[in-house]
Amino acid sequence: MTRTHAVPEVTDADFAEEVLAAEGPVLVKFTADWCAPCRQLAPVLSEIAAEESGRLKVVQVNVDSSPGTPAAYGVLATPTLMVFRAGEPVRQLVGARAKRRLLAEIADVLPARP
């Protein structure tokens, strides 16, 4: 059985604290309730959040209820995935993708396994 993990929502108000000030890398999903590919991606990110906890923090930002953060980072489409490290975006991916492909695309920005 695959472990899943609820992906917490971050808002404009707490983005700096939850993402920019985080110790390790943070994968941010910019999403919207009306976005079908975003819904397809949700279980993939839940699995990654569970399997990579300790190496990668996974959060989501709703572009409709928190429009300031997506605007600040030039997010024009949903879903957009960004990996932040030390307060800076280091990877950006647009569109839904399979778990294996997503993990391959962000592998080089994750810390080594202990």
TrEMBL record:
| Superkingdom of source | Bacteria
What family, per the record?
Belongs to the thioredoxin family.
PROSITE patterns assigned to the protein according to its UniProt record, in alphabetical order: THIOREDOXIN_1, THIOREDOXIN_2
GO-annotated molecular function: protein-disulfide reductase activity
Q: List S-S links within the chain.
A: C35-C38
Q: Which residues form a coiled coil?
A: none
Q: Which PANTHER family match?
A: GEO12009P1
Query: What organism does the record attribute this protein to?
Result: Streptantibioticus cattleyicolor (strain ATCC 35852 / DSM 46488 / JCM 4925 / NBRC 14057 / NRRL 8057) (Streptomyces cattleya)
Q: Which residues form the Thioredoxin domain?
A: 1-111
Gene Ontology, cellular component aspect? cytosol
**Record's protein name:** Thioredoxin
A Pfam family this protein belongs to? Answer: Thioredoxin
Q: Which GO terms describe its biological process?
A: cell redox homeostasis
Which key words tag this protein in UniProt? Disulfide bond, Electron transport, Plasmid, Redox-active center, Transport
